[in-house]
Amino acid sequence: MSFSEIDRANVLAEALPYIQKYTGKTIVVKYGGNAMVSDALRQAVISDIILLHLVGIHVVVVHGGGPEISEMLKKLGKESKFVDGLRYTDEETMDVVQQVLCGRVNKNLVSTLNRLGGRAVGLCGLDAGLLSARALDGGKYGLVGEITHMDPAAVTNALDQGFIPVVATVAQGEDREGAYNINADTAAAKLAVALGAEKLILLTDVRGLLRDPNDESTLIPELQLSSVPALVREGVISGGMIPKIECCVESVRSGVASAIILDGRVPHSLLIELLSDEGIGTMLVN
Fold it and tell me: What is the pLDDT, as a whole number, of residue 144?
């Protein structure tokens, strides 16, 4: 069946109440995974962000860059090491993290947004005291940091001037002169709280939270915070999903209206989730 002009008009009409709902509101998008690696998915995410920006939604992008960091370390002959799923970050690795995240990855994202019609500006946690941190868990993970303070003024100023802030998650050390590597999910959640955001969206490489991890038809579309402990005990929330759910829970408990774990492998998943009747991820609400 062909997609008629009436169908196109219906899609736009369906989007209207959502545009009205979110115009003037802030949405924090953690951008990572396949959506960053695949050219086609990257183009779709970038175009979604620009469209949301153009209809008056304040979009803040927080990004990681794990594959790019691993690639650079490999070129330098240094093996990537992970502890409990977090990249162990010694001094040499921290130098690479800072160069890759705050440099190439951040500026490439900003450049792509601007080239495709957005108005983006790149920031990192070192700018204007945006992120401060100390060693996580007593230095168990090397120079991986735990955020101790956040000053979102640089981000709010960028939003006020009509820019799309793109934030690299490197923080200024409170207990050392140098920088710390910060988990991007954690940074996005804390920034969403500091900005009083309407939504936090974590783009991932999974459909969302599944009752059966081997069956995507068992997606849990909406999750009350009160249900989370039982799902952890039952093993429904396990492995790498635990820290993502924890970030969502923290943000919603602290005032963000909802947090969504969204499949970044689906083209235009941001638009489908935000501007249509059919949400496609797992939304956590209080």
Answer: 95
Residue 195 — very low, low, confident or very high, per pLDDT cuts 50/70/90?
very high
Report how far Cα 214 is from the mean position of its chain's Cα atoms: 24
Integer Cα distance of 249 and 211 in angstroms = 18
Q: What angle do CA 138, 200, 83 make, to 5 degrees?
A: 30
Token pair 């929330």 in the structure block, residue:
237
Among candidates 78, 253, 61, 274, which has minimal Cα distance to 168?
A: 61
Integer Cα distance of 2 and 4 in angstroms: 6
- Only one residue has tokens 């992970």, namely 82
Q: Which pairs with CB-CB distance under 8 Å and at least 24 residues apart come from 3-8?
A: none
pTM of the prediction? 0.94
Of the candidates 167, 145, 146, the one whose C-alpha atom is nearest the C-alpha of residue 158 is 167
Q: Are strands 258-263 and 282-285 parallel, antiparallel or unpaired?
A: antiparallel
SS3 sequence of the chain? CCCCHHHHHHHHHHHHHHHHHHCCCEEEEEECCHHHHCHHHHHHHHHHHHHHHHCCCEEEEEECCHHHHHHHHHHCCCCCCEECCEECECHHHHHHHHHHHHHHHHHHHHHHHHHCCCCEEEEECCHHHCEEEEEHHHHCCECEEEEEEECCHHHHHHHHCCCEEEEECEEEECCCCCEEECCHHHHHHHHHHHHCCCEEEEEECCCCCECCCCCHHHECCEEEHHHHHHHHHCCCCCCCHHHHHHHHHHHHHCCCCEEEEEECCCCCHHHHHHHCCCCCCEEEEC
Q: Is the pLDDT of residue 232 over 90?
A: yes
CA 47 from centroid of its chain's CA atoms: 16
